[in-house]
Amino acid sequence: MSGLSLRLRLALIGAGAVVLALAAAGAALSFLFGEHVERRAESEMLLQLDQVLAGLVMGPDGLALATQPVDPRFSRPYGGLYWQIDEGGRTLRSRSLWDQTLALPRDRPAGEEVRLHEVAGPDDTRLLAIERVVRLPARLGGGEARAAVAMDRAELSAARAAFVRDLVPYLAALALALIAAQVAQLAYGLRPLRRIHERVTALRAGQATRMGGAWPSEVHPLASEIDALLGAREADIARARARAGDLAHGLKTPLQALLGEAERLRGSGERSAADAIEEIADAMRIHVDRELARVRTVAASGGARADVATTVARVHAVLSRTPDGQKADWRFAVPTDLGVAVDPADLAEALGALAENAARHARSVVTIQAQEVAGYVRITIVDDGPGVPEEQLELISRRGRRLDERTPGDGLGIAIAADVAEAAGGKLELHNSAEGFVAVLDLPGTR
């Protein structure tokens, strides 16, 4: 169950609780109804017992029942309702008993006590019997008579079963209504979680800088902690940028001193030593520039936004003044309403590096296109140059790596573009195509 959503978990638990509660309620109601029916049956049998005793008369052969009870079941054989009177060794019984008698307990009720028993009846039925011992008046010969009235328990069970059958559809309808109400309650109650998701998505896309304070009291502490975490992250990044700047300034003087020492050695004829020092100094400078660029891209503001068309125009304006840019035929297909969640300077640096690389290797045409794809802005830069060997495609995105060491540059451009994309939550893909070498930069949009 760990893979289920929170809403589905709560819905399943709530639905189970509703079903169990209503099942328990149905069982309790069925039990209470059965008890009520049994008490009602006892009252009726007590009344019928009084009717039987009231109908006793003294006949030629002794006691007889002059007036039968009004319920027709007493007259129908095995009709389910029976009466019996034991007096002086004689037994009077209802027609419904036919040739059977009620197997009453041996111990007789004392005085006017009324007892309730469960006894065996005709055809192995179970009967609910009520009995008492009455003292007969002189007109009925005196003495005592034991009178009983019994009812087939199957009738009570049938009444309870009918009640349950009538009750089940209503309980089912009530269960559906309660589950529907619970689902609606969950949808409304969990709405702040959806708002949190939307807000965090906006934070990641650069459309917001903080969670804000308009949250229910249960969610507000979480939103406050996220805002505090964002503030701490921004402070850490600011400190990292400051330290990176201090590092850059601190290394500039030693690097310049190394280059000066290399020039002195070259002037004194120690060319190999000078070249070695310059190579080490260049490697150090590349690493420093690389790390400074990485820190700056990671430190981009959460609310950053850059217009793609404007940035492409700025990059083209700069590159068109360079020798490689002047010889290229630039073609553009960039809508004017596309924005990305990237700092404008970082986007310009990434596009500048990719466009400069395309202009350097193109035979004649460089194409820059942009379109929105599933919430991202895809910027594609294609040059009609010879492309890159497939086994070396991965190498050119590594820091300081250049396939053509004869051309100027430090090999950081494509790697920095990849860092910009990764820091913004996008990606850079490089591949060859029939048109030439293709660089695809996917960045999160701001719509």
Task: Itemize the secondary structure elements and their pairings.
Elements: H1 6-54, E1 56-59, E2 62-65, E3 81-87, E4 90-93, E5 114-120, E6 126-135, E7 144-152, H2 153-189, H3 191-205, H4 220-267, H5 271-298, E8 306-307, H6 308-319, H7 323-327, E9 329-333, E10 339-340, H8 344-361, E11 365-373, E12 376-383, H9 413-424, E13 427-433, E14 436-444
Parallel strand pairs: 9-11
Antiparallel strand pairs: 1-2, 3-4, 3-7, 5-6, 6-7, 8-10, 11-12, 12-14, 13-14
Give a verbal description of the structure:
The protein is an alpha+beta fold and 447 residues long. The chain folds into 3 domains: 1-189, no CATH class; 220-298; 306-444, 2-Layer Sandwich (Heat Shock Protein 90), CATH 3.30.565.10. 50% of the residues lie in helices and 19% in strands. The protein contains 9 helices and 14 strands. It has helices at 6-54, 153-189, 191-205, 220-267, 271-298, 308-319, 323-327, 344-361, 413-424, and strands at 56-59, 62-65, 81-87, 90-93, 114-120, 126-135, 144-152, 306-307, 329-333, 339-340, 365-373, 376-383, 427-433, 436-444. The strands form 4 sheets. Strands 4-3-7-6-5 form a 5-stranded antiparallel β-sheet. Strand 5 and strand 6 form a beta hairpin. Helix 5 (271-298) packs parallel to helix 9 (413-424) and helix 6 crosses helix 8. The two termini are 36 Å apart. Mean pLDDT is 83; it is low at 399-410.
